[in-house]
Amino acid sequence: MKTIAIIEENWNGHRPTYLKVFTKTLLELGHQVIAFCPQPLELTEWVAFNCPNYQEQFQVFQFQRPEPSSFGINGIRTALNALKRWYYAKASIQYASSKIGKVPDLVFFPWLDSCLAPYLLHHIVDKIFPYPWSGLYVQPRHLRLKQKFWSINRGTLKPHAALKSSHCPAIGVIDEGIAKQLQSKINGKNVITFPDFTDESAPDLNWSIVKQIQAKAKGKKIIALLGIQSQDKGVLTLLEVAQQMVKQDYVFVFAGQLSKQSYTFQEQARLQTLLNLKLPNCFFYFQRIPDQAKFNALVSTCHILFAAYNNFPHSSNILTKAAVFEKPVIVSSKFYMAERVRKFKLGLTINEGDVLQCIYTIGRLCSQLDNYNQEVQPDFHGYRRLHSTEQLPEKLQSILTSI
To answer: Is 203 part of any domain?
Structure first.
């Protein structure tokens, strides 16, 4: 039995799901787990319900995101924030160790990205953080996007530089398309591809919001954009689509917390103009979706999932949701999500921000819905199996054996 510390500072999106599922998997592998998160009571209750036989192997401590730096230069500010996280993680582990008398054999970050930054070299991390560590590198953006700034800098200044740390035995990624590239940049260290798993809780179809959507739709086809409503999610594109399709038999659902700070001033003005139209074919729920059962109810209720994100080179958990509930999805034609959609025939692609193409694609998909499985033969089952939590024990074990 090893003692594993697992640290998550953010309780939004699917990050709580990552922490919970990693915790459960490690407990079931027979390890002692010390968790650090913003909602220790919620995690404790979840473990008690989902892992009742492993509660003696589990402890949890409060953990909040450190106060962010106010330094004026963006790249340096990002590095300073990452440094704070390493210092704070060390202090939190030392405190927990003093209370329970255990020192972790490995510290695992389910969302390692927050601890990485340009200018943050592995030598610095080694001096700050004395424990063996690993994690899931979810969005290695610079390995998918060509950016002038990165291209003129030496490799040591890239965000992945800290992964060369002698304390980091292996690393996990979701994007298999960059695994070999990343491995070559961190001295051949083991890079393990993890499943893009999701919470498959039974949909809470009694949720009042779902009832309201169904009442509004009255049998019309529902196109949904779910999760945080940020600029990169293509909110403006889908709103403009809804505006042009206002006389057709569709309902457009926007559900999730509205992230106004992610929009430029001009985009905020355009967003407000569209919202002020009070389009009768739109349903807005600009609040955090309370839990995964309710999120799954929204997925289950819609007919098409809109995920044509802007300048978004990563995967999205929404593809796994689409596979679980067998819903066709519309994604942007570039990058990783398009690769997955084409490979498994999960839906169709459009050019980013192309309103007319999106209108055509919605019509095309809706015309196929009744016979979608027969006509298109999507491999929902294959995608769901590939990204199932059943794949996790082997992946985590690969990291643990590297210690």
So the answer is: no
Which pTM does this prediction carry?
Answer: 0.91
What is each CA distance from 123 to 105, 118, 162, 189, 402, in whole angstroms?
Answer: 20, 13, 8, 16, 20
- Give the domain extent around 186: 3-197+389-400
- How do strand 304-307 and strand 347-350 relate by DSSP bridges? unpaired
| Lookup: tokens for 274 | 């569209």
CA nearest to 41, candidates 60, 25, 66: 60
CA distances in angstroms from 60 to 1, 4, 37, 303, listed in the order given: 18, 12, 8, 40
CA distance linking residue 169 with residue 402, whole number of Å: 6
The continuous run of DSSP H or E covering 347 comes out as strand 347-350
Q: Is 120 helix (H, G, I), strand (E, B) or coil?
A: coil
Q: How many angstroms separate the first and last alpha carbons of the chain? A: 13
State whether 393 and 353 are in the same domain.
no
| Element at 285 (helix H, strand E) | strand 282-285
pLDDT 10s digits, 36-85: 999 999 999 999 999 999 999 999 999 988 888 877 777 788 889 999 99
What is the secondary structure of 328-384 as a DSSP string?
-EEEESSHHHHHHHHHHT-EEEE-TT-HHHHHHHHHHHHHHGGGHHHHH---HHHHH
CB neighbours (10 Å) of residue 138?
A: 23
